[in-house]
Design a protein that fits this description.
heterodimer; A: Pyruvate-ferredoxin Oxidoreductase, domain 3; Rossmann fold; 4 domains; 8-stranded mixed beta sheet; 21 strands; B: alpha/beta; 9 strands; 15% strand
Chain lengths: 566, 283
């Protein structure tokens, strides 16, 4: 038992407003939901749409079927008609367009006129929400209280919006009242309604990040927006850099001086950052970089999703230096994992890349509240008495990590870091012996990082015949595919990587020999994780299930590929 | 506290004998000593080039970063700990060529940084190619028929962009250089000092003697006089003026960030478990 909504129209028609209002009120009512966006790289026009799915528990992925379609223009109806369920309903404004005569599922609601009567055309979206509520058999009170929260202090706005909501509700009631049955509400307490970028921003702030420098780039900009909005109330400076080169170098300056620092970008911006990434490795400066992937090469598909930059973030930057690559999986996992990225960066004094993508960044889910007491805030600095004087920034050590102090915090001691090869003090050197020593010291940190990596998450049949291997934002769709295949009688499990590099290999090595067939499922054209596994272990994943059209996987696509192959 | 210039000198220099960098280094050590700023309370940021080796030869905190990228980390550092004095030392290629975009935007940003550009009008470390400030006609191994494009005028550019402190000095006028550096370090905001210096190995045109014959000290009655400053920044050729051409403080990067009031960010205590209220807006 589930319900799937789709709202579509031209850019600028306010689909997001409807979905945010509806999504949040559904979560307040106790429903488990997922809501994702499909949008074009333009500010006006084109075709944008959002899907919202309500399912028992909390759904992990959206699906194609549409039960209620809100068509804000005619094109939306024709583009999504073939996915409409037989019992579907279509909310549309008959003053804008009419549905074909043979289409009997229409629910005409004069969105604009009703909004104007309530006090302004801008509230057409609120009218649409009212119509949606009555179709789902819900009362208006939760949305009303949300409108009160949203418009508190804006004179008349609450009353006008509630009037608009009610008029939409009444208009649709005569066509179809409670003609859909919703899945049961979740028993457990309050849930958050939050998207991937907001999770990452909140995690960064709660991890003690005090400096973000970035250049806006879709789909990473949401992190910057979140943190900028907080920078007036929390000890945090957000600086919009003149370019990504400046962004990463600014963050390195702040990190060197002693605060947890972050930069965020997408593939093209990361291309400009890789010289600075190499500098972070050489100077042993802690830094977290969020890379939210979109399809490349070059400008690619600016607003769409791909997992095409895994090889790039593992190998980007000249020279050899240690780094870790972690990824965003679910909203729940990402909150703690970005914190881990900060902790590793400080503990190993080296850059850590957090790999996100548009599918994760822009998708809202209903999730359990986070446990903030689990977060790490340890800059791993050497206190007075914990380092030898005179201080040497790059003092040799067994694990490659040198005691770190901050400039200005210890009278008489100075901290010198250098982009050139350097001696223990940080001074330029040309010595072959020192070079060897420093190269080995830096790379020893990779061993420590490898021990910190979590083994991939195993879900599904404990004795699987089919194994799906994935990473990053495909977690949810893979879970749904595993469930569907299991229901169809195919013993299936998934092995999902959140910590990707240095690659944890133990669980995969144990499992791969046991299964009849294995597949790597990736949003790219070449199977980059499969390639990494082969390089690191010599193991070959049996098959590749790849999608690189800029859209996220649907569970059905994975299930069909497996079934057709078996 | 008594500070001696010698206490700020460290390391074995790798510059050519006769290089203008020696005098600049000495002037900087003397300026720091006279201002009585302890070594550990200063950070020198630099890029890459002969001038950018300064953090290795002056005993302070140092961030010897990437070519052209000395200003961005200096800005980040100002946000993290505004109590430290920040100096940027780099050459003309680093500051005006590779780092041109950062140069422009940091004038707008106006962080409290003293920027000392060692301007020898040539690339030294890569052995003698033209720099953004090379005079037209200068022949090099790359500009084989002579530099054909006009030079970048850093001081005019900075003045046009609204920079609050603009000065020119010369490595051959050490006393003037030292005093100019002191004023730049004390100036609240971005202070640009373009320091003329000979490159004995690669610039056979703009030699020590060439500069020495031309530099002079104009009378500057009003440091707020933008038009007069612009005229001075544009003088080049037979006579080259030295001095602080313009000095007019304006809102700094640090003062525009309200969050930076009070303790430096680096010293503020933090406990993640007290941040759970961040979730409230998502219920």
């Amino acid at each position: 038992m589930e319900l799937n909504l789709l709202i579509g129209g031209a850019a600028g028609q306010g689909m997001e407003t409807i979905m945010n209002l509806l999504g949040k009120s559904l979560v307040r009512e106790g429903f488990g939901i997922i809501y994702s966006k499909d949008y074009m790289s333009r500010v006006r026009g084109g075709h944008n749409f959002s899907r919202l799915r309500i399912a028992p528990g909390t759904p992990w992925s959206n699906v194609e079927t549409v039960d209620i379609l809100v068509a804000l223009n005619e094109e939306t109806y024709f583009l999504h008609r073939e996915n409409l369920a037989p019992s579907a309903r279509i909310i549309y404004d008959p003053q804008d367009f009419n549905l074909p005569e043979q289409e009997s599922r229409g629910v005409p609601v004069e969105l604009k006129s009703l909004a104007e009567e309530a006090g302004g055309k801008v509230m057409a979206n609120t009218v649409a929400v009212g119509a949606l509520l009555v179709l789902m058999g819900l009362e208006t009170n939760t949305v009303e209280s949300l409108l009160e929260d949203t418009f508190a202090g804006k004179e008349g706005a609450v009353e006008k919006n509630i009037a608009a909501l009610q008029s939409g509700y009444d208009a649709a009631a005569s066509y179809c009242s409670a003609c859909f049955t919703l899945p049961p509400r979740n028993e457990s307490g309050k849930k958050l309604f939050i998207d991937g970028n907001q999770v990452l921003g909140m995690s960064a702030l709660a991890s003690g990040c005090r400096f973000l420098s970035a250049y806006p780039m879709t789909p990473s900009t949401g992190v910057m927006n979140y943190l900028a909005a907080k920078s007036t109330d929390y000890p945090l400076v957000v600086e919009q850099a003149e370019d990504e080169v400046a962004a990463i170098n600014m963050a390195l300056g702040a990190a060197y001086t002693g605060v947890r620092s972050l930069t965020c970008t997408s593939g093209g911006g990361f291309s400009l950052m890789v010289e600075g990434l190499s500098l972070a490795g050489m100077t042993e400066t802690p830094l977290v970089i969020i890379v939210a992937m979109r399809p490349g090469p070059a400008t690619g598909f600016p607003t769409r999703t791909e997992q095409g930059d895994l090889n790039f973030v593992i190998h980007g930057g000249h020279g050899e230096f240690p780094r870790a690559v972690l990824s965003a999986t679910s909203q729940e996992d990402a909150f703690y994992r970005l914190n881990k990225a900060f902790a590793l960066a400080d503990r190993y004094q080296t850059p850590v890349i957090f790999l996100s993508d548009q599918n994760f960044a822009d998708t809202h889910r209903s999730v359990e509240p986070f446990d903030f007491s689990r977060l790490n805030y340890d800059l791993a600095l050497a206190g007075e008495g914990e380092f030898e004087k005179p201080y040497k920034r790059y003092r040799a050590s067994k694990n490659g990590v040198s005691p770190r102090i901050l400039p200005g915090e210890h009278a008489g001691e100075v901290v010198l870091i250098d982009s050139d090869e350097h001696d223990e003090q940080g001074n330029i050197t040309e010595s072959a012996e020192v070079r060897r020593m420093m190269a080995e010291k830096r790379m020893r940190k990779l061993q420590g990082l490898a021990e910190e990596m979590d083994e991939p998450d195993l879900y599904g049949d404990p004795h699987p015949e089919v194994l799906l291997v994935g990473w990053g934002s495909n977690y949810g769709v893979l879970r749904e595919a595993v469930d569907a295949l299991s229901e169809a009688g195919i013993k299936t499990a998934m092995l999902h990587y959140s910590d990707i590099y240095p690659l944890p290999v133990q669980r995969l090595q144990e499992l791969l020999g046991e299964v009849k067939k294995s597949y790597c499922v990736e949003n790219n054209a070449t199977g980059q994780l499969a390639g990494l596994i082969r390089r690191e272990t010599g193991l070959q994943i049996g098959g590749l299930i790849l999608k690189y059209d800029g859209r996220p996987f649907l569970p059905r696509e994975i299930v069909e590929e497996v079934e057709n192959d078996l | 506290m008594t500070c001696k210039a010698e206490d700020y000198l460290t390391g074995k220099t790798a510059w050519c004998p006769g290089c203008g960098n020696f005098a600049i280094r000495k002037a900087l050590a003397e300026a720091l000593a006279e201002l009585e700023i302890p070594s550990h309370e200063i950070i020198i940021f630099s890029g890459i080039g002969q001038a950018a080796k300064m953090p290795h030869y002056i005993k302070t905190n140092g961030f010897n970063g990437l070519h052209g990228r000395a200003l961005p980390p200096a800005v980040g550092s100002r946000a993290a700990n505004k109590e430290l004095k920040v100096i940027v030392e780099s050459g003309d290629g680093d500051s005006y060529g590779e780092g041109g975009n950062h140069f422009i935007h940091n004038i707008r940003r106006n962080p409290d940084i003293a920027h000392f550009v060692h301007n020898n009008q040539v690339y030294g470390l890569t052995k003698g190619q033209a720099s953004p400030t090379s005079d037209p006609g200068m022949q090099t191994g790359v500009q084989v028929t002579g530099v054909s494009i006009p030079p970048l005028n850093p001081l005019s550019l900075a003045l046009t962009m609204g920079s609050g402190f603009i000065a020119r000095s010369f490595s051959g006028e050490k006393e003037h250089l030292k005093e100019t550096m002191k004023e730049a370090i004390n100036f609240p905001g971005y202070a640009l000092v373009d320091i003329l210096q000979p490159c004995v190995s690669f610039n056979k045109v703009n030699t020590f003697g060439w500069y020495k014959q031309r530099v002079y000290y104009p009378e500057i009655e009003d440091h707020y006089d933008w038009n007069n400053a612009m005229a001075l920044t544009r003088q080049w050729g037979d006579r080259i003026p030295l001095g602080i051409f313009y000095k007019s403080p304006r809102m700094t990067f640090e003062s525009s960030q309200l969050v930076l009031e009070g303790e430096p960010l680096v010293r503020r205590p933090f406990d993640p478990s007290r941040m759970a209220s961040l979730q409230d807006e998502f219920y």
